[in-house]
Design a protein that fits this description.
Residues 14-307 form the NADP-dependent oxidoreductase domain. The structure is a single chain. The protein is of the alpha/beta class. It has one domain (3-213, 266-287): TIM Barrel (Alpha-Beta Barrel). The protein has helices spanning 31-43, 59-71, 98-112, 131-143, 157-164, 187-193, 235-254, 258-268, 298-311, and strands at residues 3-6, 9-12, 14-17, 48-50, 78-83, 85-88, 91-94, 117-122, 147-153, 171-173, 197-200, 274-278. The strands form 3 sheets. The protein has an 8-stranded parallel β-barrel, surrounded by 5 helices. It has a two-stranded antiparallel ribbon with strand order 1-2. Strand 10 (171-173), helix 6 and strand 11 form a beta-alpha-beta unit. Helix 1 (31-43) crosses helix 2 (59-71) and helix 7 (235-254) runs antiparallel to helix 9 (298-311). The longest helix has 20 residues, at 235-254. The termini are far apart.
Length: 328
């Protein structure tokens, strides 16, 4: 397993993303399978586990807590969780009010069964709360020893600059994959210039680059992909054309799977620290070993760019994931 450092702590360059094992947007996951998946990740050298209260409305954090107790060594885990999202029967809302954040940190510590969180991230910027105020509250948690390092997710370079003016910023977690590259413009250069680690989510683009999606595939109501524009026509056919061509390239050029090519692509991009890999079963982690120990050469990087540009004529981004504004 390749490693890097976040705020001085060594972490695996492929981390386990636990959105799926929360069981609310990716289909039900049995608790024993979810625990086995997390333990399997640790056995494979993936010490970074990324979670959030919104994943299964607390369930993913509770599972990670059970995993740490089953394993028995808290120091063997680098736990990254988040705050700043609220939810009810009308949807999901950004909420970084001080009262909400203070309640969330205590809830996360309780669900995880730990007295500290390695990396505490604001999940989405709250446009109704000044970023400096949010950063100040998180700085309190850091001084109290409840969190070791602070990060953000889905923040712009300007928003990160505001956050960093109050308290040191260790990391940013944006969506990033072969199909979604918006952060190449300003975010990645800013992070590189300011020593901010970058953890990418949707590294396999909601499984589109995982090698298991096929043309005409339908998704059940409640599955996040049922509302993702990439999985709706006419875009779905365009993306599937790119997927098929990329899978052939991975096989013929490197003897690798599409998922391995996609994850390696992320890790080989300048400024990327960690790629998150989602899984619901231990066998879905089998391909991770094949991501390590090789590089994508410059000519293949250019060929990947050509495949995407030629195949996807109407690209769409991950904007649909943006939470609602409170009281809107």
């Amino acid at each position: 397993m390749e490693t890097t450092r976040i705020a001085g702590i060594e972490v695996s360059r492929v981390g386990l993303g636990t959105w799926a094992i929360g069981g609310s947007e990716w289909g039900a996951v049995a608790e024993d399978a979810a625990i086995a998946t997390c333990l399997s990740a640790i056995e494979r050298g993936m010490n970074l586990i990324d979670t959030a209260p919104i994943y299964g409305r607390g369930r993913a954090e509770e599972i990670v807590g059970k995993v740490m107790r089953a394993h028995g060594r808290r120091e063997g885990f680098y736990i990254a969780t988040k705050a700043g999202l609220d939810w009810n029967d009308r949807g999901v809302f950004a909420n970084s009010t001080p009262a909400r954040l203070r309640r969330e940190i205590e809830d996360s510590l309780r669900r995880l069964g730990t007295d500290y969180i390695d990396l505490y991230q604001i999940h989405w910027p709250d446009t109704l709360v000044p970023i400096a105020e949010t950063a100040g509250v998180l700085a309190e948690f850091q001084r109290e020893g409840k969190v070791r390092a602070l990060g953000v997710s889905n923040f712009s370079a300007q928003q990160m600059e505001e956050f960093r003016s109050v308290v040191p910023l260790a990391s940013d977690q944006p969506p990033y994959n072969i199909f979604e590259r918006e952060i190449d413009g300003a975010t990645l250069p800013w992070c590189a210039a300011n020593g901010v680690a970058v953890l990418t989510y949707s590294s396999l683009c909601r499984s589109l680059l995982g090698g298991r999606i096929h043309r005409g595939m339908k998704f059940e109501p409640g599955d996040i992909r049922a509302v993702d524009p990439k999985f709706q026509e006419p875009q779905f056919s365009q993306y599937m054309t790119a997927v098929e061509r990329l899978a052939g390239l991975a096989r013929d050029r490197y003897g690798k799977s599409l998922a391995q090519l996609a994850a390696r692509w992320v890790l080989d991009r300048p400024g990327i620290s960690v790629a998150l890999w989602g899984a619901k079963r231990p066998d879905q982690l089998d391909a991770v070993a094949g991501v390590m120990g090789w590089k994508i050469d410059a000519s293949t990087m250019a060929e990947i760019d050509c495949i995407v540009a030629e195949s996807v004529t109407d690209p769409v981004g991950p904007e649909y994931l943006t939470p609602q504004v409170r009281n809107s």
